[in-house]
Amino acid sequence: MSTQQQLSVLIVDDDVQFRQGLKTLLGFYSMERINGMSIEVVGEASNVERALKLASSHQPDSILLDMELAGSDGIAALVALREMSYPGKILVLSGHQEESWIFRAMQAGASGYVFKNHVAMQLWEAINTIRRSEIFLPIEVVSKFFHRFQAEAESSLRTSQKFHLTEREREVLHWLT
Hints:
The protein is of the alpha/beta class. It has 7 helices and 7 strands.
């Protein structure tokens, strides 16, 4: 006997038609009970302020978050959710495919990133991936993301190598961190 798993979702996007499309798609997933999972949309928001209120009151398992919102952006929402210790997973759904947007979103705490034009093909896989506490990135951006990560790490290493610390300074620094 399989147990029904319930996933609560908050949709944050300022495009009413896109939100409606997401609800329809999520409803289809629930109807089909794929992998024994039912998805409940517990709220919708078109801006960061409303999203934070709904996230706080409903504590959804996942948030589907657009990067461009009325009066703000998804990065502000990600930072604010992290500051309020939101325990769920955040999946970014964005029209922006530039690596800088993806990198910033992941740095700010996103669990995954899906291009809006691929939502129909990738949403189910992305939701299941982040539910397992894994990261979801479209295959076409994984290499770009990793190269950007390496460049950032290399830059950080070069900066830290510029400082020549004595053994005692390194010891003090170790205890401070």
